Amino acid sequence: MPTDAAHPQSTDELFHALQENHRRPYGRTRTVTAEELVDAAERFDEPVPLIHALLELQEAYTYGSDPRKSPVVFARLLTLFDERPDAFDERLRHQLFWRFKWVANALIALPEIPLTSLRQWLGEMRDRYEKAGLGLQPYYGQAYQLAAHVGEDTTLAYELWAARRRTPLSDCEACEIRERALHRADAGDDERALEIWAPVLAGKESCQEEPARSVSYALLPLVRTGRADRARELHLAGYRACRRNAGMAGEVGRHLEFCALTGNEGRGVELLAENRNLFDEVDSPLDLLHFLTGVEVLLSRVEGLGHGELPVAGYAGRAWTVASLRAEVRERGDGLAARFDTRNGTTLHSDHRRERLDRAPLLDALELTLRSRGLDDLAEGASRTDAATGSGTAAAPTAPRTTEALPESVPELILRARELGELGHPDARACWARLRTLVAAPGYTHPDDPAVGPYVRLCADLLSDEANRAAERDEFAVAVELQEEAAGLYDDAGAPGDAALARACALLAAAEIPAGTPSEDGSEGGSEGGEGKAMADALTEAHAGLVRLHEETPGLAPYIEGRLLRLRASALGLRLQASGDPEHVAPVLAEVERLEAFALRHSIDGQVSGAKLLRAGTYALSGDLPAAVTEADALRERLTEHGPAWHLPRVLGLRGRLRLGLRDAPAAYADLTEGLRLAAAWPADAVDTGRLHGDLAEACMHLGRPDEALTQLTRAAEAELRAEKRTDAFCAYSNAAQLCLDLGRIEDCIALLDSLLTEPDVVAGKVDDRLVAQLRLVRARALHAGDDLKAATAEFVTLAAESAGWEDDPGSHAMIAAETAMLLAESGEFERAGEAVGRALAAHALAPRYEQLSNCLRELARLQAQQEGPDGLDGALAQLATAGRIADEARAAGFEPVGRSLDSALAYEHGRVNAYVGQYGDALAALEKALALVGEPGPETGSAGEWAECVRLAGLVEGVYLERPAAALTRLDAAVDRLAALGHTDGREQLASLAAQLRDEA
User: Fold this and answer.
1) For residue range 104-126, what is the model confidence (pLDDT) as tens digits?
2) How far is CA 90 from CA 86, 119, 166, in A?
3) 503 touches 532 (CB < 8 A)
C-alpha cells in the first residue's frame, strides 16, 4: 500500500508527513504509512528524524493491536538512546522512558513470551529508571499488572504501587483509576469499584483510552448495583468510542456481553456484525481472548433462546450461523486461555473465561436504544433477505392474526379467501398467504371442484393479491406488471369481470408511477418541475381509461362494479391531490356521489364507507376542513352502526389529521389514540398504523410532549418496516433522530443512526441516496453536538464532496458545504474552511441560501479572530465583507430570515471580532451600530434577547477593556431597568451580573 508520504525529499517534508499520519485513526493505513516513513527517515542518516519516525511507528503498532512488533521498534529506539543520548531532547527522553510500559504491556499480551522474559524486562525497566534518577512508581505499577495477569497474590504488589507518590512518568490519572477500580471489582466489591471509577465515568478524568476502557468494565457492576439507566447511557457513549477498533477488541467483547446479559441479544448480534473486522484484524492474543469470550457469551445466549440457525457475521471466507460460530469461537477461545495459563503456570484465564460464560442474565430486558430489535425480528429479516437474494428458502409472508381459524380443506380455503376478498375483509390476506404456501409446495394438486374453478384462476387470484400488496408499498411498476399478468390468467379462466378489475387496477397503478421513473417500455415521465402536472395528466388519462373499461365490460357483479367505481373516484381524487386545481374538486365529488349511490343500492357497506372517506378527503384537499370533519363524523357514526368495523381506525386517523389542521391537538390526540387502539384488533396490514403513529407524534409535539412524540415516531418507523415500506420507515427514523438531537439525547440519536446506516439495504445502496445522506447529515451534527469534532468534520467533508454532484439540488450542497466550513474552522483548518465556503458560495449563486451562508461566514470570522488573534483579523474581516454582500443581496431580494436580521447580526459580529483582536474602539462602534439596527425592545419578546446580548458585550468592552466603567454602568443599569419594566427575563440576569462585577472592581 504505497503512499505519497513514502517519499519525502527533505526532513521538513518528513516531519510534515509524520504530522499528517499522526492525525489518521489507528489502523492498517496509519501503520503502513508509519513503516514507510521509517524507511524514508533512514535515508537522511540523521538520528532525530529517525527517532521521531520510530516513535510514530511504535505508537501505530501499540494502538493498532500489533504487540509483537512494538518491542522490536522500541529496541531500536533504546539502541539509539545508548549510542546517541544527545539526540534525545527532554521531550524525546520522556517519550522513551514512558514507553517502557508499552513494551511491558505488549509482552504480557503474547503467550509465547516466557514468564521469565517478562520479569527480566521489568528488571531492565527498574535498572534504567534508577540509573536515570527516575521515581519507581511506574515500575511498581507494571509489576502489579503482571501479578494480576498471572494470577498471583496481588496484595503486596498493589500496595507497593498504589501507596507510592505519582511521578511524571506514571500512567495518567484516568488509567490509574481504572486499575484501582478493577482491583476492587475483581475482589467482588462493585460499590467500591464504582466509587473509585466515578471521576472517569463522569468524564472528569480522561485520556486517549479513557473513559472507553473503564466504561466497558463498569457496565455489569452498574447493573448489578441497580444503576441500569446509567449503564445504558455509558454503553451508548462507550461503545461508539471503541467500535471496529482492533486496539479495543476486548472492550467491544465486553459490550457484547453486556447486551447478552440485559435482554438485548438482538442488538448484540447487530454490533457483532458491525465489528466483524475484529475477527481477522486483532493481532494481540490477549485482546483477541477477551473479544472472543464476549462473543461466545452472546452466541451462547442467542443459541439458548432457540436461534442457533440465525445467520451471523464471523470470520471471513464462509457463512456462519450462531451455532457454528459459537463452536469455532469456543475452540479458539479455549486454546488462547490455555496458552496464557501454560505460560503463567496458573489457571486464571481459563477460570475467568468460564466465569464469564457461566454468568446468568442480569435483566430480562433493558431498552438500550430507540430501535430495539429482538432475535425474532432479525430472523424474519434474514428470511426476507434470503428470499430476495435467492440464497435460501423463500418464506411466505407471516400470516396476520385472524379472528377465525383458517379452513383446513383447500376448496373451503379458496372459497373463504374469495368471499372475504369481495368484502374487502382484512382476514382475506391470511387465506391468500396460506394458499400461496400450499400452491408453492411440491406435489400440490388443485381440487377438481366447479365451485373453486380452474388452477389458472387461483394463480390469477394470488397474483392480484400480490399486486395489491406491491401497490400498498408504492411499488407501482411491479403492481402494473402483476395485475396485467393476472388479467391474462383471468381471461384464460373465463372470468371477464375479474380480468377487467385487474386491468383497471393496472391502469391506476401505472398513472401513479412517479414522473421520471422508467416504465416497462423504457419511457420516462416529466421533469421534476412538471411532476405535479405530469401526474395529473396521467391520472386524467387513467380515469378516461377506467370509464371506458367500465362501460365496455358487461355483466359485472356488483362487488366488481363497485370497485371499478371506487377506482374511478380514486383516480380523480389523486389528480386533485397532484394538481391542487380547484376545478378538479367537482369531478371528484360527482364520481363519489355515483359510487355512494351504487353502493347504497346494492348494500355494499365497504364502498359506502369508501365513498364517504373520499368525500371527506376531497373537502380537506379543497381547504374546507370543517366540512371534512363533519363528513368524517357522519362516517364514524355509520361505521359504528353498519360497519365495516375495520374502516374505523382509518376514519379516526383522517379525523385526527383534520383536527391537527384545525389546530385542535387534544382532539387529534384522542382520535389518533383511539384509532390505534381499534387497529390492534385487526391484522397488522389491515390499517396503516405507521401513518397513525406518525400523526400521533405530531399531535404530541403540539401538546408539548416531545418524549412521547419520539416514541410514536419510532413505532411509526417499525410499523412501516413491517409493511416493507422502507423509504417511509427511514424517513420516520430520520425524524426521530432529529428530534433526539433537538432534545439533547445525543447518544440515542447516534446509536439510532448507526443502526440504520449499517442496514443491509443501506450498505447495498438500495435506499435512496439523498435519504441516506440526510441520515448521515443528522449523525454528523449529533457527533458535533457530542463534542466529537474530528469524526463530525470527517463526515461533513465526505458529505460535502458527495453533494457537490447534486446538480438538481445546489441549495442542499450550499448548506452542507457551509456547515463543513464551520467545522473545519473550528478545527483550526482555515485554508480548507475557505475552500469549503467557496464551494458553498458557488452553489448559493445557483440556489440562494442567504441565512445559512451569512451564519457560516460570520462564524468563520469569529473563529479565526478568536483562534489567531490579530494575525487572523484580515481573514476575519474578509469573511465579514462577504457576509455583508450576502446581506445586501438578501435585502434586495426581499428575503426575510427566520432568525436574527442579517444586518444586525453582522454588526454584532464586527464588534465581537474586533474585541477578540484588541481593537476595542472599533468593537464598541460596531456594537452601537448593532444596537441601532436591533432597536429598543418592546413588550414583545422577539428582539429582547438579541438586544440584551449587544448591550452586554458593549458594556464589557466599554467597562473592562476601554476602562470606562461609569459609562458602562449607565448603559447596563438602563438596560436592566428597561427589561424589568417590560417583564423580559432574557439576558437581564447577565446584565445585572456584569454591572455588579464592574462595581466590585471600581
Assistant:
1) 999 999 999 999 999 999 999 99
2) 10, 28, 19
3) no
Under a CB-based contact definition with an 8 Å cutoff, are residues 480 and 731 in contact? no
SS3 assignment, position 321: strand
DSSP states along 618-633: HHHHTT-HHHHHHHHH
DSSP type of residue 202:
T
Q: Do strands 320-321 and 311-312 pair parallel, antiparallel, or not at all (unpaired)?
A: antiparallel
Q: Which three cell numbers stand for residue 123?
A: 528488571
How far apart, in whole angstroms, are the C-alpha atoms of residue 350 and residue 341? 7
H or E element in which residue 442 lies? none
- pLDDT (tens digit per residue) in 620-629: 999 999 999 9
User: Rounded to an integer, what distance in angstroms lies between the CA atom of residue 859 and that of residue 826?
Assistant: 9
Cα–Cα distance measured from residue 753 to residue 762, given in angstroms and rounded to the nearest whole number: 11
| Cα-Cα-Cα-Cα dihedral sign, residues 960, 966, 969, 970 | negative
Question: 271 and 239 in contact (C-beta within 8 Å)?
Answer: yes
Backbone angles phi, psi at 312, to 5 degrees: -140, 165
Beta carbons of 96 and 114 less than 8 angstroms apart: no
Helix 496-511 and helix 558-579, axial crossing angle in degrees, nearest 10 = 10
Alpha-carbon distance of 388 to 392, in angstroms, equals 9
Which residues make Cβ contacts (< 8 Å) with residue 236, sequence separation at least 6?
A: 368, 369, 747, 748, 750, 751
Tell me, rounded to whole angstroms, the distance of Cα 756 from its chain centroid: 6
Q: 3-state secondary structure string, 280-316?
A: HHCCCHHHHHHHHHHHHHHHHHHHHCCCCCCEECCCC
Buried b (16+ CB within 10 A) or exposed e, 62-74: bbbbbbbbbbebb
Q: Residue 444: which region, alpha, beta or left (left: phi > 0; alpha: psi -120 to 50)?
A: beta
Closest CA to 257 of 227, 231, 283, 225: 231
Is the pLDDT score of 1 beyond 80?
A: no
d(CA 187, CA 38): 45
Cα 343 to Cα 286: distance, rounded to the nearest angstrom: 13
